[in-house]
Amino acid sequence: DIQMTQSPSSLSASVGDRVNITCRASQSISRYLIWYQQKAGKAPKVLIYAASSLQTGVPSRFSGSGSGTDFTLTISSLEPEDFATYHCQQSYNTPWTFGQGTKLEIK
Amino acid sequence: EVHLVESGGRLVKPGGSLRLSCTASGFTFSSYTMNWVRQAPGKGLEWVSSISSSPSNIYYVASVKGRFTISRDNAKNSVYLQMDSLRDEDTAVYFCAKGGAEFDSWGQGTLVTVSS
């Protein structure tokens, strides 16, 4: 199975900050990487697919980069509604696996 | 608009059984692979099982293989998860999710608690 490791596990930041969340795969997954945002008590929603493609309706302050084993989710300027938990997931092969999540909190 | 509604979660004793249901609307259900994904309290997401549209292709995570069975009824726009021999570690919110490898729509989840 492909292991996905996110860092950091938690992050405190302020509105307007630029933040990066990283995700590392235990083997190459090309660009088969998805980023989700999950707010407390809610279902996840897709932000980024194929490592860097922005899902329809997602604000342009979100971006994704990377290929192979190392990936990054960047939020260019935090808005209040961005404080949530972020998950990466590999879509290279089954079993589909997720990172442990990164909780983004208000400083 | 895609709408997925899960039901069937409750408190069950270890070794017990439960059947979860997910009813879909807003898209052509019979054309899409459907999945179950779970999230234990305070933990990350774990994909559990998927079933293709036909449904000729079925997959499970190793930890549930032989205990859980996924099925679907395209006439009822529904997907099911039969869970047998439940264990404490199966306690989680179970989400129904649409899509092959990318889960583009999710339900609100149903809570399964396994405890004596």
Explain what you see:
The complex is a heterodimer of chains A (107) and B (116). Chain A has strands spanning 4-7, 10-13, 19-25, 33-38, 45-49, 53-54, 62-67, 70-75, 85-90, 97-98, 102-106. Chain A has 107 residues and is mostly beta strands. Chain A is globular, with a radius of gyration of 13 Å. In chain B, 0% of the residues lie in helices and 49% in strands. Chain B has no helices and eleven strands. Chains A and B meet through strand 4, strand 5 and strand 10 of A and strand 5 of B.
Number of helices of chain B: 0
β-sheet strand percentage of chain B: over 45%
Oligomer: heterodimer
Q: How would a textbook summarize the main sheet of chain A?
A: 7 strands, mixed
Mean pLDDT of chain A: 97
Let me know the largest β-sheet of chain B: 7 strands, mixed
Q: What is the end-to-end distance of chain B?
A: 40 Å
Given the structure, what is the number of helices of chain A? 0
Q: Largest interface, per-chain counts?
A: A-B, 23 and 19 residues
Query: What form of chain B results from the Cα inertia axes?
Result: globular
Radius of gyration of chain B: 13 Å
Compute the separation of the termini of chain A in Å: 36 Å
Radius of gyration of chain A, taken over Cα atoms and rounded to an integer in Å:
13 Å
Low-pLDDT windows of residues of chain A: none
Instruction: Output the structural class of chain A.
Output: mainly beta
SSE pattern of chain B, N- to C-terminal: EEEEEEEEEEE
| Beta strand % of chain A | over 45%
List the helices and strands and how they pair.
The complex is a heterodimer of chains A (107) and B (116).
Chain A: E1 4-7, E2 10-13, E3 19-25, E4 33-38, E5 45-49, E6 53-54, E7 62-67, E8 70-75, E9 85-90, E10 97-98, E11 102-106
Parallel strand pairs in A: 2-11
Antiparallel strand pairs in A: 1-3, 3-8, 4-5, 4-9, 5-6, 7-8, 9-10, 9-11
Chain B: E1 3-7, E2 11-12, E3 18-25, E4 34-39, E5 45-51, E6 58-60, E7 68-73, E8 78-83, E9 92-98, E10 105-106, E11 110-114
Parallel strand pairs in B: 2-11
Antiparallel strand pairs in B: 1-3, 3-8, 4-5, 4-9, 5-6, 7-8, 9-10, 9-11
